[in-house]
Amino acid sequence: MSGNFFGRIFRVYTWGESHGKAVGCVVDSPPAGLNLSEEDIQKELDRRKPGGKLASKRKEEDEVEILSGVFEGMTTGTPVSMIVFNKDAKPDAYKPIKDLIRPGHADYTYLAKFGFRDWRGGGRSSARETVARVAAGAIAKKLLSKFGIKIVGFTKEIAGIVCEPDLSDIESILKMAESNAVRCPDLEKAKLMEEKIIEVMKKGDSVGGVVEVVVRNVPPGIGEPVFDKLDARLAYAVMSVPAVKGVEIGSGFACAKITGSKHNDPVILKNGKIRFETNNAGGILGGISNGEDIIVRAAIKPTPSISIPQKTVNIKSMSETEIVVKGRHDPCIVPRAVPVIEAMVAITIVDFMMIQGLIPRTLLES
Amino acid sequence: MSGNFFGRIFRVYTWGESHGKAVGCVVDSPPAGLNLSEEDIQKELDRRKPGGKLASKRKEEDEVEILSGVFEGMTTGTPVSMIVFNKDAKPDAYKPIKDLIRPGHADYTYLAKFGFRDWRGGGRSSARETVARVAAGAIAKKLLSKFGIKIVGFTKEIAGIVCEPDLSDIESILKMAESNAVRCPDLEKAKLMEEKIIEVMKKGDSVGGVVEVVVRNVPPGIGEPVFDKLDARLAYAVMSVPAVKGVEIGSGFACAKITGSKHNDPVILKNGKIRFETNNAGGILGGISNGEDIIVRAAIKPTPSISIPQKTVNIKSMSETEIVVKGRHDPCIVPRAVPVIEAMVAITIVDFMMIQGLIPRTLLES
Amino acid sequence: MSGNFFGRIFRVYTWGESHGKAVGCVVDSPPAGLNLSEEDIQKELDRRKPGGKLASKRKEEDEVEILSGVFEGMTTGTPVSMIVFNKDAKPDAYKPIKDLIRPGHADYTYLAKFGFRDWRGGGRSSARETVARVAAGAIAKKLLSKFGIKIVGFTKEIAGIVCEPDLSDIESILKMAESNAVRCPDLEKAKLMEEKIIEVMKKGDSVGGVVEVVVRNVPPGIGEPVFDKLDARLAYAVMSVPAVKGVEIGSGFACAKITGSKHNDPVILKNGKIRFETNNAGGILGGISNGEDIIVRAAIKPTPSISIPQKTVNIKSMSETEIVVKGRHDPCIVPRAVPVIEAMVAITIVDFMMIQGLIPRTLLES
Amino acid sequence: MSGNFFGRIFRVYTWGESHGKAVGCVVDSPPAGLNLSEEDIQKELDRRKPGGKLASKRKEEDEVEILSGVFEGMTTGTPVSMIVFNKDAKPDAYKPIKDLIRPGHADYTYLAKFGFRDWRGGGRSSARETVARVAAGAIAKKLLSKFGIKIVGFTKEIAGIVCEPDLSDIESILKMAESNAVRCPDLEKAKLMEEKIIEVMKKGDSVGGVVEVVVRNVPPGIGEPVFDKLDARLAYAVMSVPAVKGVEIGSGFACAKITGSKHNDPVILKNGKIRFETNNAGGILGGISNGEDIIVRAAIKPTPSISIPQKTVNIKSMSETEIVVKGRHDPCIVPRAVPVIEAMVAITIVDFMMIQGLIPRTLLES
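Structure tokens for the assembled complex are given below, as produced in the milestone run.
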């Protein structure tokens, strides 16, 4: 109940603090018989890790070690425990502001909840915990790929600059998005976004944006009635990512401005199968997948750590004061949020596939 | 795992089909010692029930009966089971279209999942199941009121017409919203919304909108780290309501267009307590309540049942055809979604309050 | 968390009090496509209901009504809600002792937990709630029978009289057990047990015993490592039945007196398949089924309601006094516990079969 | 669902294989503000670790490292991750028998479940995973001690030799039990047990026994109605420990031979409080604690690894053969099971205390 696991039949538990010894996760459990190596995990962690001109200067190789659940190169069906040591933790950098509530962070709320707080960079509330999500998601993504399911995420919007890519070729979307520092598949927009981030960064400020994730080839029939709708649990998964303030499926908030005759996706036959002519539904009807692309979008708030002075309170003296948050922060977290949101979507989809019986407990006899 | 319960320590189970014998729920369990009568439930059900010029013509009194968990006018701490009989079920009305997939409905996805489907008005996938949510939510709301917590929902937008009410006096918001057929607290906008709905209804079409729910007086410290963030579970709860395509907290998608220096809510002292000068956070930081109003918004799609002809497929002959969905439908479901979303928010908040230990197992000794 | 559901992917929720309006359950959810009628449920309820010379004189027909989840004679894959009205509730009979703690009952513990208690025959703590377990178990048993799995329970011991039936023909065990009032498959022992119960009953006293349940044809491979072992969850399920004080699997407590060379079941080949020559394991090794009969035993305490005067406390005056519990009680609850324990075993097995993917979400396409 | 966690609001996740890199657990989460060091954990691990004349010759220091959740010597309220590296793993010792099914072990059942198995000493099914349970239990025990609750376990029976210690002074029971190699508080019986084990060990055979755990000072009112009874979840917890074949509460199986007038514990007043004159209930009535000692017993089967030749099957050639299990095994696992069962009991009690609201989320403000 303490919030540190996700999933029902495919469960991910995470642990670790930003400036503690390590962060890690337990994945309980992939089916037996999946080929799995540390390289599979590492390549996803590398997409998330800090570095580059637009990101935090914290130097973390984020090297992952698999501690259990893999034998002779294959998953055993028992928990895969993974660990990433924190190598560039600098807790002392936070000492000068340890009694100040950083605006936009969880400093005050953790204090209210637990009676004290780990002031070392936010402790458990830091986005550093998303390392564990990405590691777990790497297993989910690899597993889904065995069933032909692809997950591609990209930056849809930064600071009001929006791209509208053609999603028909998602391999190309992936390639283009991964080719630039903002993860935008539209290279012109990518350039504008980069410029905007640099401009804002120079002022010590930050910007937000929108991430979109597309899931292709999910079979119809996954998701559950009423409360555990596929879209409901995707919203749960994605809203749990730090800095997310909104989640949309398919048409999303735009549905409020469209009539039913435009919004309903016409039902058609394609190669003898029921399909939909448009995809306002975002691949989900009544909480259950309809075979079309699942489309999820997340609004990401501007990074709360900024070097512009802000009003705050000193909790020791209980007096109002100002804070300037220095340190190693991203002026825009959107590009690094992409693999994190992909991971949460992947974990959610695997969970539903297993509940529906579409991923068996062992891959060896199928 | 089959999707029919919600909550962790305060759990709601629902059951029933649109044109079956009854719908109902089990609330497991409110604390012992809460005064509870059928009137407490009925007044919330009455807010949701069909009728009026803008709603479905199905005649349901939605009279609730409490079957267990209340003794001598007080909850016992054991499950409260409630039932509402379906009195105006007309399954035969659906017979002519029982082999046609209704666009925008769950007909195809339930078929894909279960191998057959209850064609009587959608069966379990019908929004009629929300009767049970509202009944359960009535208990949650009553319980929260004992702890000074108020939940007020209203229509924020219909068909592009948006209201921006001043939220400082939520009693007045509630009163104004409940005074008109569209549940909009801005009476001028309410009139425009009504006119728009009538215009669309005449064409056999439908429209969507946005619901906003405000929760006042939630103490700081509820919500959990990482996955079970308060906002994450609110998104889960609200996205599980039929027709919802998007969920926002506080600034929501607008955060993508604001800089950090504007988005961060300044931390201040007010009567010696830590408070926030603005509320872009929507009352939640790092997934945990900060004491400010919790603000949730949901995008509601246009009702999929429309009498304009639509392309579809006959699953018996597996051929393309047209469908006209006649019957007793709402041209705009937004106003009736208000109490449903309030209910889901209330259930979620009670669950977190109990996990945090702020609502005890019995109210009798406190 | 309030204790009123059981199961993970196949869940049973129950509600209701002994002298309230009704008791009931929600089964969430059997796979779609199972033929199911009220008769299927009724025949199991009839095995449990009071009556006969050795049982309570409360007159309950225990007539079940299915409220949801069945359409055109088949389960839909959504929750099956069932209700049994209490027709012979006589709460007033408990008024004279409403301030006295009945020894051996939950009167004091419910009071301690909830701050007050439903004094009408124990309310929620009454064994009357097992009506709901048996109703849910009837669905589980029917479902298992589709997969060739049989569950047979019987009275193994009453008041020190023990039977040792040959389990090879379990159909015959079932037939013999159901032929007598104590549900013992050894007719000579059955007679002795009956005589003993009548003797004790005349003194106003009560006796306990042991129930054994055999599950045949469970495929090898169900159950989970570590905590959710099949035997662990069977112990959980069975110990949750009122009056159970112990649970054994296979050799049970006798294992403490045997050496390893005798206790280990030799591994052999039978028709080309791995089987075990003996069954001290009770069909479970490392928490996972091995294909042999699953053997569960439960110790049932003597009925606490006795008409012999007992020491107790009056909670109003907080003084020591005596109590004589009159009313409609069973002098030995063991025979009526048999279908209840079968039900809990069946629910547990279905849950594991679904988790292992051996029972699909729909029976229609298989 | 994969079986690797236990608990509802206080959850323990474990991972790791007998001859893999390490074993570990995540405790999610103790309340904030508990003083916690590695020494607190180590002293419990030392009670479980191999060594001594009657135990396995595997040399493991079982040195624990806390990886998260503790800051400045106190728990933070977030997950405590712990790791114990396997330093004396010798997987090659198992190579000669990797195609043979070891009788009494989980070899065949894991194979049936997952399609292949980790043959290195049982992998995940090895009792080595109980290291993680004891580490987690150490936190639970420390936490309970803050609330005055003591948990003492001891060997009640080995190979038919039974002790009946006076439980009134449990500190002395603990001291005596910890003073000898078999953990029996009756020193004469301890000697007989030791001799019996040595005798059996010389023959290459093994023996079983019974462990008893006493929990003192649990407040009345913990445990939940119906399914999540305190005794039900204790049975679940304890039966999940490797080698356990039976669980009893209070009178246990002996209740089958006693009449109600003897079995019911008379209700009395003691210092103005409701108490019970005897304790056949084992501290639990209707699934809820009554304030008396909670008494749990577990039957432990003889160690399945014996050096006497046994019938088995070679899974490669699918032919019958013989096996002699050499290696580093305990001739009697009972003494080392004591701290493991204590740990499971402690974890279960903490979970219920937190659900009842008796252990708050932070210890700092109380």
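Helices of chain D lie at 38-48, 107-114, 130-146, 170-178, 187-202, 230-239, 260-263, 334-355. Chain D is about 25% helix and 20% strand. Further analysis is deferred to the final report.
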